[in-house]
Specification:
The chain is mainly alpha-helical and about 110 residues long. The chain has 3 helices and no strands.
Length: about 110
Amino acid sequence: GRSRPTDMKTHPIQGMPVMAARCKTCPFNEGGCEEVRTTVMARIMTMASQTCHTTGVAHGRPDTHLCRGARDVQLRAFHALGVLSEPTDAAWAATCGQLGIVPPAS
């Protein structure tokens, strides 16, 4: 059947780096898959960060990186909400540090 935002596998992501740039198949690119983008957006704003579809389990490999496109959405949203001082990875890492959360590796 069709997946829902709650239909997800969980993987430990503490310390997992974010992709430096969006991969060419990122659903957040212009022309990216809208169904995947919508599902991922619901997930990243309510539950968890997204691993990159290109580097991980979608291709039978262990997850190694977080999705750059998804993180960019989180950065903009959390900045707009006042959670982050600016929509950057550095602000994300600083806020994680203040909250005692292990930020992504650099």
